[in-house]
Amino acid sequence: MKNHLSDLIRIAGAAVALTLSLLGILPYMIIPVAATLICGYPMFKEAFDAIRERHMTMELSMSIAVLAALAAEQYTTGLVITLFVLVAELLEHLIVDRGRDALTGLAALLPQTAKDLQPGDTVVVRPGAHIPVDGIVLKGNSFVNQAAITGESLPVEKGPNSEVLAGTINQDGVLEVIATSIGKDTIFGRIIGVMESVQSSQSPIEKTADKLAARLVYFALGGALITWLVTHNMNATISALVVAGACGVAAGTPLAILAGIGRAAREGVVIKGGVYLEQLAKADTVLLDKTGTLTLNKAIVTDVSSFNGIDSRRLLQLLSTGEQHSDHPLAGAIMEAAKNEDIQPGAYDNYNYLPGKGLQFSQENEYYLIGNTGLFEEKKIDVGIAAPWLESAREQGESTVLIGTHEHILGGVRLVDLMRPEAREAISDLHDHHLKIILLSGDHTASVSVTGRKLRVDEAVGNLLPTDKLAYIQQLKAAGKKVIMVGDGINDAPALMEAHVGIAMGTASNIAFESADMVLTNNDLRKVGVAIGIAKQCMNVIQFNFWGTIIVDAVGIVLAFMGYLSPMAAAMIHVISELIFILNSARLFRKR
Ligand SMILES: Nc1ncnc2c1ncn2[C@@H]1O[C@H](COP(=O)(O)OP(=O)(O)OP(=O)(O)O)[C@@H](O)[C@H]1O
Ligand SMILES: [Zn+2]
Known about the structure:
GO molecular function, one term: metal ion binding
Number of helices: 24
Bound molecules: adenosine-5'-triphosphate, zinc ion
Subcellular location: Cell membrane; Membrane
Radius of gyration: 32 Å
Transmembrane segments: 12-44, 64-91, 212-230, 236-258, 544-565, 571-589
Number of domains: 4
Family: Belongs to the cation transport ATPase (P-type) (TC 3.A.3) family. Type IB subfamily.
Strand order of the largest sheet: 8-20-19-18-9-16-17
EC number: 7.2.2.12
Structural class: alpha+beta
Oligomer: single chain
Distance between the termini: 30 Å
């Protein structure tokens, strides 16, 4: 605010001097010249710095114009141009700061009390209070307003075992919460961290904007030079210098990016940099992981079958022994099924996880395999006896997990994974953005195809190991595709990093937050389409400002050359057109 105050004092000073000299009260040149030089000091200083750093800014062409006016004894003109520049800068700062405050103001919400807390501590949150930590509810029931973080407009009901997020507001009940992360490690803390880093780094389009702004200064200088050489008309030359603005490009571009990222954050999408906003707008292909991304990670065992006469309780017990430490979604379902039958997992001697295939373990000198058909084929174990059972599962779009020894197959379980309720709508939104949608999965191709047909995706590819997913993306990129990958962030980390834009689901996983370029904080798949819409709107605004500025500057210089523009009219066009472009960017802060 303090630099705004000095701006205001300068503006007032210049305005008083202008009024006095217009009224003829101060006929001497000394006052308007002194007022111009003193009030215009910040502009002259920036122009001087620009020359030293060999970096073109509009302050340079404006300063040349003002000095030329003073030299030609057009004191009023010099003062008016200075006044316009000062007013324009002040308005521009006010608009940009207002936008920035809307985002960094969030940081003030990060509860201070959290500093003394540790993960594992219990906090009591009263009605109306901000929840200070990310955590799990131990006791109590309440509705919580999560709009600031996930963009959900309706309060969300919370009870024992619900997850709560720092920075959200507890509405009506008392909640006892056990902290899982605090301060900067909370989702809210990370969002703020991302916002800060976005403001300190430049995306490619911002660099383009800076280059364009510099070219426009050369353009103005060149236009003025030609005008002087051809017409020898000082007024026309000053007008040519003054009419060309570039702030709509130079300041409007970062403002639009910030606004887009800020709006996405309020919708529950954290975007880690302007570059991803650009990539989102250009994307033509979306790859969706199946398990955990399109499905809820809440698989249910629908059938346990034995193929060699082995008792089905014994089968479940072996399965739970193998799966007890796995965090694969299918493992969770198997553990749940065993628990429902009061079956306890047993002890094992050796254990190996086989990514994308399953696992093996040994117990009392017998080796067991648990996993997909690919794993059994690899170990040359005949699964012929299970073929009809496998086929009927796949026709239903169900997943299967087989269990066997190294000699023969013992049995298998069928599982259904519940589809996210919004998956279908999310996919149709993506189609509306003209994207090609491909389902990628480690699950069997037949059941992936069934899911793909249900969801109306363009292609469905199964039997992919995590490395195959990576290769698939590399292939698309080599073919010139702009690829978005949406995954659940744990086994998809390499694919998320390889895609132009990697989007992770989920609030909890650390790995997701690190390896992805974007995070959907509320797991709502529809927000991918929302983010793409915001990104496209942002890029349209930026392009509009680019072309608008080029056209206004070019037409202005031509009019000045032809002698149709007074310096005052030129200054007016410069300032008003720039303000329009900056307001065009600021418009993005508003919700649709
Ligand atoms: N712990 C496990 N127990 C049994 N089978 C497993 C296990 N882990 C992996 N598998 C088998 O390997 C396949 C591929 O696993 P992976 O984790 O690569 O993909 P996914 O998460 O199942 O599917 P998606 O690629 O759609 O997320 C699974 O479909 C399953 O058949
Ligand atoms: Zn300007």
